[in-house]
């Protein structure tokens, strides 16, 4: 087994995850099988109880693991199915070591960070690296490891020590270290400054790790004299110093690495040049170039709670992007803070209220993603009502599905106090209830998690056709509440159709509003299994309805093409969009143009 370690220096948020994923893509293009591990030095056992404001979205795996969003990047870029053990945290390591100590496995020895914690880290890496995650038998050829945080953080010191020991343990030719660092450009002098990277590398070497490659984040390509200076002070060959400058979308990053011959430096370090093939990026290049040339756009209103932090909905954004590419459209996301749609905001901040409704009404489609808590719920209900009554394509995910049911119960059934017991435990008309098997005392890992099977109970429904007329689908879940089964007959008599249910037939999974061009709610999270070139069928349906396309390329793995016969014919006017670059609110490259209710324009001024 060969190992590639990706570390970061100077500041966080440089794009280590995208860099690690892109290195994996590069190695796959050279003919190697790849697996990935993400190390998060925080004490949490997993990401499940963390706020999106802390670390962005919680990504859910097939086995129910609640993990860092970078594992979503790995799965999307490399088309893998990872396990919860592919995400290592300080909490998991300490939990494992303490459990061994309680069993007496250490035979009375004093348990210490070195060697017991560091040994546990190394053993975990070696064990997980052997698990096949690409659908083939046997272990992968290369394991790409990303160390979260920044070199110098106190919390990551045990991992740094363990990885230093690990590099010695596996020996030369089996370990390659790529250090991602920042080369800022000061506006005052316009010069690329190398000192932050020099200090970062010096600190890394002082901790026992020596980088084989430097991946330098900068706004533009590094000058040759800057590379020579970094080479001299960091003891890294200039041919192994890469520039990761700003590009139109993140699909360019693997190509950027290839063009700078990063694969040759990595393969040389790992003694793999004799068995590697020339990198084959034919399909990757085609997708990248096609997206860059799109002129027509499709606008989707994202009605949520964390609209100032796009990473909170990263997988949703990626799934929308995959679907928009399949429909040959440039994606424009209008961020609509749910609270701003509510009547109270019209009194407190009339401009924000007016702007939010303008964005909602100007969109070609509306999406209400998952979430927790009652903030903004009324605004989401109003968005679902607007979509239902005005024939605007609508997709509700997890809470979004429950919102659609609450709105229908209030507006159509006349149950004006209908609610979820999550928001009003004493409601007289609970149309969404706490699942009986859930825990009300422990939060971590107690939801209905991971891949679950949904059976289609209505063959002639949009959802089943989007999935290729299959009898069932396996999708990933993350929820504590469900639609009240006692209310189903009443809801269906009034016009809703629960077309997908679990294996018992009592838990609602997919709801549709027949007669509407596209109004679908899913209890599961289809965004977690969307891939470039293989978009999620439900997202593909939403974008298709929003574009009013007669036929779009079928999602790989599904046999039915989407036609007007499936989706109906809703035709909102598409608005022109001539942007040629992008940057999300947190400056991460994601290929999505976004606008906000603050000024109604793209955040980078290109819309």
UniProtKB/TrEMBL annotation:
Spans traversing the lipid bilayer: none
Record-annotated CTP synthase N-terminal domain positions: 2-272
Catalytic activity: UTP + L-glutamine + ATP + H2O = CTP + L-glutamate + ADP + phosphate + 2 H(+)
InterPro entries: Class_I_gatase-like, CTP_synthase, CTP_synthase_N, GATASE, GATase1_CTP_Synthase, P-loop_NTPase
Pfam family, one: GATase
EC number: 6.3.4.2
Molecular function terms, GO-annotated: ATP binding; CTP synthase activity; identical protein binding
Pathways per UniProt: Pyrimidine metabolism; CTP biosynthesis via de novo pathway; CTP from UDP: step 2/2
A GO biological process held by the record: 'de novo' CTP biosynthetic process
CDD domains: CTPS_N, GATase1_CTP_Synthase
Principal EC category: ligase
UniProt entry tagged with the keyword Ligase: yes
Alphabetical keyword list: ATP-binding, Glutamine amidotransferase, Ligase, Nucleotide-binding, Pyrimidine biosynthesis
HAMAP family, A to Z: PyrG
Cited NCBIfam families: PRK05380.1, PyrG
UniProt-recorded name of the protein: CTP synthase
